[in-house]
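> call design_seq(struct)
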């Protein structure tokens, strides 16, 4: 079993989330005005050996993404139908869901060649390990040039920033990405 939550605890979590959706309670607005991580100093944590391994894997993954080589990226992910990718700016601009590695691989193969002079980095990575599962929250930055006749001069340099959560699983003694969830910062 992938997740080892007791059935009662799992059911309670789902019931809470469902009731929030049904009643229209928005978790983002429910804590409006309260302190956020950006508003307070969070002391650095001492990372365990496994958390350091996760951090190192994510740094390698970022370099693979920057290479724009899908085969290099593939070395860092679970390559089965259990892989998921969720990305988007907000609900108005669209949210994109890729189910399975092959679907996301096609997404990358279509998108990455359009990005010229591409820089990609992950910062403020906060890994947490729970047995053979891990997750990390982080900031990401992408800077790239898109060439198109739609832009004055035929190209445009863009910078995108955002937040991400990545879930990993330890398989054959290696950490692999099972799920990515990214969202862009608002302009």
């Amino acid at each position: 079993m992938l997740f080892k939550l007791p059935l009662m605890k799992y059911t309670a979590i789902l019931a809470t989330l469902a009731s929030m959706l049904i009643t229209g309670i928005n978790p983002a607005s429910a804590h409006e005005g309260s302190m956020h991580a950006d508003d307070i100093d969070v002391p650095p944590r001492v990372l365990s050996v496994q958390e350091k391994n996760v951090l190192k894997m994510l740094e390698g993954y970022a370099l693979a993404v920057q290479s724009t080589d899908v085969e290099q990226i593939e070395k860092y992910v679970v390559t089965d139908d259990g892989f998921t990718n969720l990305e988007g700016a907000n609900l108005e601009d669209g949210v994109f869901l890729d189910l399975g590695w092959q679907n996301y691989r096609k997404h990358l193969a279509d998108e990455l060649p359009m990005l010229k002079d591409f820089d990609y980095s992950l910062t403020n990575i906060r890994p947490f390990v729970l047995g053979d599962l891990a997750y990390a929250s982080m900031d990401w930055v992408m800077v790239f040039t898109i060439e198109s006749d739609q832009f004055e001069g035929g190209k445009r340099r863009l910078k995108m920033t955002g937040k991400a959560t990545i879930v990993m699983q330890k398989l054959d003694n290696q950490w692999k990405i099972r799920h990515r969830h990214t969202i862009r910062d608002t302009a």
